[in-house]
Amino acid sequence: MNSFSQLFEKKHLKDTMLVLVFSIYLVMGYPTPEPVAAVVDTLVGKLVIMFVVISLFVYANPIVAVLSLLVAFDLMRRSSKSTGIDALARYAPTERKKMSQFTAFNQFPYTLEQDVVKKMAPIVQGGYTMTKPTFKPVLEQQHNASPIR
């Protein structure tokens, strides 16, 4: 309660103004402008925001610091919505989703054709032993073709 009463003293006017601005930003829900969102939605932008929040935790009133943490997360969320990264992460298919769809499409039922082929007698039974055929092949008319060697 001591930090709350210190917030409204005359020497802490800057902290009071920050609380007011942060509260307006959180309550009103304005979308982040595109140029600001493009800067915030990068790794460097997020690191700078976290550095500012940590420095407010060290040097400012605890109420301002906690409010700045909420504003930082909300700013990052709104920036990702404004740049489209949020929608891309939410709706673009990942490799895992694509592979699960492919495996679902490649599950075929056991067909009658597979059953008939499985029941057919194999050409060679019992390994590599072959019996002599009971027939003698006869060549058709060759039409003066040369034999294949």
Largest sheet: none
> Overall pLDDT, averaged?
81
The fraction of residues in strands falls at under 5%
Shape assignment:
rod-shaped
Estimate percent helicity.
55-70%
Determine the number of helices (DSSP H or I, runs of at least 4 residues).
8
Structural class: mainly alpha
Uncertain regions spanning at least 5 consecutive residues: none
Strand-and-helix sequence, N→C?
HHHHHHHH
Ends: how far apart? 104 Å
Q: Please, what is the oligomeric state? A: single chain
DSSP summary, beta strand count? 0
Radius of gyration (CA) equals: 38 Å
Give an account of the 3D structure.
The protein is mainly alpha-helical and 149 residues long. The chain has a domain of 90 residues. Helices cover 63% and strands 0% of the residues. The protein has eight helices and no strands. Helix 2 runs parallel beside helix 5 and helix 4 packs antiparallel against helix 5. The radius of gyration is 38 Å and the shape is rod-shaped.
Layout of strands and helices, then pairs:
Blueprint: H1 2-7, H2 13-28, H3 34-40, H4 43-59, H5 62-83, H6 85-91, H7 95-105, H8 112-119
Helix pairs in contact: 2-5, 3-5, 4-5
Structural descriptors:
0% strand; mainly alpha
Quick summary of this structure?
With 149 residues, the chain is mostly helical. It has helices at 2-7, 13-28, 34-40, 43-59, 62-83, 85-91, 95-105, 112-119. The longest helix is centred in the middle third of the chain and has 22 residues, at 62-83.
